[in-house]
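Consider the tokenized backbone below.
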């Protein structure tokens, strides 16, 4: 039986977790937010990475967990949503435990609460994405490695398994694994640390290779990697890389540190200023700096280099690991000024309810596009779209949707269509597309949603 002190310690956290779960489920939408969400759902229903169900690397550990949850919920959509919700709750507990060891219980409560109401973390904790389950495993490794003193063999082994499994959820987080292995090689426990890491990798890699086929897996991997770095992946030098990269990266950092959501300026300004103050407090804390937080920070710095050059900075989900890290860094200021931090956090927490109260719809733009098409289309109609086309592979509409990867292919795609449609339209999410005239339909992004992008539809002029 747990002691009274243990019950008293975790009672507020369990109450907060219950409220977090309730709000997550009440505000969840059982629709995929973008192309990757569609790919994940198709993967749960029929795993085939050759047809991007999901795309390479296949996310085998994530899909396996999603399939298990889908058996419980009865649907792939709610299975993946509940997987994110469950992972989000565990992230809150792990962050609390880490913060309590590094600071004190009161500071830990404030840090966990700040994580719960962070709009980026909250939103992704009920979305069909793999980032929050991956964050759970990454934070588990940080917890296992401890803050000071000698780390036991078992902790190194557990951290290795966590990091290895994490790659089966988000392979693009490989810099964290690389940093872990590099540090482990310089410790007396390197054999156990590396063995744990390899065991964690093999738990998902062997079943995946057996299912897909080693040669097929390697071939798909080469093709996908080439496309990611040369064409559509959003990395530096790709065909459709955004030229305003530094500004986008700065915006994403601001969002994960707290300047996210719509809310009002006055709910975010106090917290943003406190975060800046907290970073100064950390850097001037001298010998008080935690070895564990420095470890987390150094690993995140390596990952940040990869994000700068190898990831698409338009997507805030690539920056999610910096959310708990930033709060742990600011923990030094929270410990010093807990009452002020609590008041500022309560003001900041209003951002989420304001966002949801201002939303005109609780569904993504593609869902509203489908409903509009189904209610207005009575003839052979074609829509030429970018990423949004993938949604209609999962949820077909009355019209036909064609994927166009860029404006260089748009005119050819329109003119080569046979038989000729009665009407054709173009979505503005095609990379490089410059619209002319007024749109025939506009589907706004949900207020404060970190994934949504407004979608406009134009009549074809070709």
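A designed sequence for it:
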């Amino acid at each position: 039986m747990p002691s009274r002190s243990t019950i008293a310690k975790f009672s507020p956290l369990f109450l907060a977790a219950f409220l977090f779960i309730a709000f997550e489920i009440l505000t969840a939408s059982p629709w995929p937010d973008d192309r990757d969400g569609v790919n994940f759902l198709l993967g749960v229903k029929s795993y085939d990475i050759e047809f991007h169900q999901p795309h390479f690397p296949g996310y085998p550990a994530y899909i396996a967990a999603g399939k298990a949850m889908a058996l419980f919920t009865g649907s792939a959509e709610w299975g993946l949503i509940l997987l994110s919700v469950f992972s989000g709750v565990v992230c809150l507990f792990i962050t609390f435990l880490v913060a309590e060891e590094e600071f004190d219980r009161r500071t830990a409560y404030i840090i966990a609460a700040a994580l719960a109401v962070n709009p980026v973390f909250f939103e992704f904790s009920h979305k069909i994405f793999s980032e929050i389950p991956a964050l759970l495993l990454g934070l588990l490794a940080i917890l296992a490695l401890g803050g000071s003193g000698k780390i036991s063999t078992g902790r190194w082994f557990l951290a290795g398994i966590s990091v290895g499994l994490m790659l089966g959820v988000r392979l693009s987080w490989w810099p964290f694994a690389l940093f872990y292995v590099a540090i482990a090689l310089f410790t007396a426990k390197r054999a156990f640390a590396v063995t744990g890491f390899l065991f964690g990798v093999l738990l998902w890699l062997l079943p995946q290779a057996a299912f897909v086929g080693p040669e097929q897996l390697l071939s798909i991997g080469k093709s996908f990697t080439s496309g990611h770095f040369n064409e559509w992946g959003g990395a530096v030098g790709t065909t459709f890389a955004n030229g305003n990269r530094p500004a986008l990266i700065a915006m994403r950092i601001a969002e994960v540190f707290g300047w996210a959501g719509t809310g009002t300026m006055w709910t975010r300004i106090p917290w943003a200023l406190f975060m800046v103050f907290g970073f100064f407090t950390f850097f001037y804390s001298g010998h008080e700096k935690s070895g564990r937080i420095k470890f987390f920070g150094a690993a995140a710095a390596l990952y940040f280099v990869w994000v700068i050059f190898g990831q698409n900075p338009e997507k805030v989900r690539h920056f999610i690991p910096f959310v708990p890290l930033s709060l742990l860094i600011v923990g030094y200021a929270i410990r010093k000024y807990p009452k002020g931090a609590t008041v500022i956090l309560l003001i900041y927490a209003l951002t989420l309810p304001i966002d949801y109260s201002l939303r005109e719809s609780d569904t993504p733009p593609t869902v509203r596009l489908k409903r509009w098409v189904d209610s207005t289309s009575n003839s052979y109609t074609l829509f030429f779209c970018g990423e949004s086309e993938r949604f209609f592979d999962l949820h077909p509409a009355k019209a036909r949707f064609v994927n166009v990867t860029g404006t260089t292919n748009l005119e050819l795609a329109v003119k080569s269509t046979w038989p000729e449609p009665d009407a054709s339209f173009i979505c503005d999410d095609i990379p490089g597309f410059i619209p002319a005239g007024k749109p025939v339909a506009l589907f706004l992004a949900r207020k404060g949603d970190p994934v949504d992008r407004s979608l406009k539809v134009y009549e074809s002029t070709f």
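The mean pLDDT is 90.
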